[in-house]
Amino acid sequence: MVSPGPLIQVGTLTSNGNTLYFVSNKPGGFGGRDIYRCKKNPNGGWYASQNLGPTINTKYDEESPFVHPNGEDFFFSSQGHTSMGGFDIFVTIIDSAGIFDSVIALQYPINTTDDDEFYVSSPDNKRAYYASAHEDHSGFGEQDLYMISISQELEENEVLVLFKGQVVPDKGDTLPLGITVVVTIKGKSEPVGIYRPQRNGNFNCILKPKNTYIFSYQIDGKEFYREEIDVPGEFSFQEIERAIPLNPVKLKVETSLPNPVKKNISLKITVLDLKNFKPLGGARITLSDNSGNGYSLLADSLGKSQAIYLEPGKIYSIKAKYGEFGGDSVVVSTVGVKTEKKFSPTVYVSTLKETYNVDSLVAGKFIHYFEFNQTEFDHFHNYPLFLAEIDKAISVNGKLSIRIKASASKVPTKAKGGLPGLAKSRAEALKKKLIEYAVSKGVDPAKVTFQITTSVGGPAYKKDFLHHIREYEKFQYVEATLK
Q1: 256 domain residue, yes or no
Q2: Mean pLDDT, residues 337-358 taken together
Q3: Rounded-to-5 percentages of helix, strand, coil across the chain
Q4: N-term to C-term CA, the chain
């Protein structure tokens, strides 16, 4: 895909669809074409793109990024690093904090003195495909496609299975946009992934064999369907190609509405997003009256409810939720209504995510609170402001002294070193970024000193992160202060 202005080439999406890697020659890179990544935000949009930095990018061109479905192996082609000529293929490892290890060049005969690019491997790592000009000119043209058969036996943890699922609404209904699929390994509380189906109800995830998985289908954090998926260990590449079918799930939304004898008072509700005043299709509407009765229904694709008939002499409170987002209630009164009456209230939901990351900056201080499964921090507005403070310190002192504090909540993690290791990795990731920035400004790394403290804090985990995620996120942060 080519856009006007700088070249932008779409590269690869991670298996969970939450991170996009692409190539661009836009200004601000390290030279030529660089590789960038951007993360999907909770509302389905994308955060600002981030250059992968000097570990990956060089003053020469980089091309064809590819992330293996295991989420760890990152392949790309470069004319720099230790290329033996033209583009060579390199591999590195992405850790749980999103940091890249040192790059390693693939050996001859995969890499040659000509261009070798677009390396892609199968989920089970038994085959790989790439394009090469091949110096022996054995191909049919300038660049041909080659397949590599990897003969060595694979370790069990290298085999992966592609799971294809679908959520199907009842006939005539629309699919609520607030659906999430939480996947855990049976007997464990930590999710291996949280997925949001596409508009057609489809979603994909990568599973490891020899496990039994629990798939919890939820709306607004409430489970409406659950199933166990057993993934045996005898899968081959061909079986991965066929995938594991998930029987379509019939979404049954309980709709309980008032049913007065006389239907002369009607109510039709519209749900809008307070952020942009657009309709919120699939929002859940709740209706309660002053007698303690409660009712629930879903808005259609235009954010509208079906006609609801109200009882006279009642006061109704109306609220709406969209996923984890909510808003203020609206009151409708039928007290004293004796003739035909139609109510058409609008209920607003604020999808502005509650956050502790503010755009204002205390002089010489940066703090970022991590959302669940998030590792990035430098695309937020307050980070460049902190770098501007660093520029001032460099111009005055020629050196930097920075205090870094990092914390992890008590929500379980698979990160290396557990929760203390996660807090440490956050501190080290920020330290590495700040050193790279200082060096780019001409500062000797020896003149950049750090004082680092890490901690694990917050409430004890009670397997309730979906309902109390904001409380946990208060203790998932990294902070830097200029001393």
Answers
A1: no
A2: 72
A3: 10, 40, 50
A4: 46
Helix (H) or strand (E) holding 430: helix 418-440
pLDDT in tens, 75-99: 998 888 776 667 888 888 887 667 7
Give the domain extent around 96: 8-154
Domain presence at residue 414: yes
Query: How many folded domains does the chain comprise?
Result: 4
pLDDT at residue 221 tops 70:
no
Amino acid at 313: G
- Dihedral angle, C-alpha 377, 378, 382, 387, nearest 10 °: 140
pTM of the model: 0.37
Contacts for 433 with CB less than 8 Å, ≥ 6 apart? 53, 378
Using CA atoms, how far apart are residues 465 and 467, in angstroms rounded to an integer? 5
Q: Let me know whether 112 and 47 are in one domain.
A: yes
Do 241 and 301 share a structural domain? Answer: no
Helix (H) or strand (E) holding 118: strand 116-121
- Is residue 458 within 8 Å of 409, Cβ to Cβ? yes
Q: Can you state the angle between helices 382-397 and 418-440, rounded to 10 degrees?
A: 50
**Residue for token pair 């000119």:** 137
24, 74: one domain: yes
CA distance linking residue 76 with residue 415, whole number of Å: 25
3-class secondary structure per residue, 211-249? EEEEEEEEECCEEEEEEEEEECCCCCHHHHHHCEECCCE
Q: What is the DSSP letter of 304?
A: B
Per-residue pLDDT, 262: 79
User: Residue 304 belongs to a domain with what CATH number?
Assistant: 2.60.40.1120
Dist CA 263 CA 245 (whole Å): 46
What angle is formed at CA 199 by the lines to CA 198 and CA 200, rounded to 5 degrees? 90
Read off the amino acid at residue 455.
Answer: S
Bond from prior residue into 4 cis (ω within 30 degrees of 0): no
Number of H helices, E strands in the chain: 4, 32
Q: Which DSSP state fits 40?
A: B
The verdict on 397 and 460 lying in the same domain is yes
How does residue 277 score in pLDDT terms, banded at 50, 70 and 90? confident
Residues 6+ apart with CB under 8 A from 393: 364, 400, 482
pLDDT bin (cut points 50, 70, 90) of residue 140 is: low
The region of weakest confidence among 90-99, 216-225, 278-287, 472-481 is 216-225
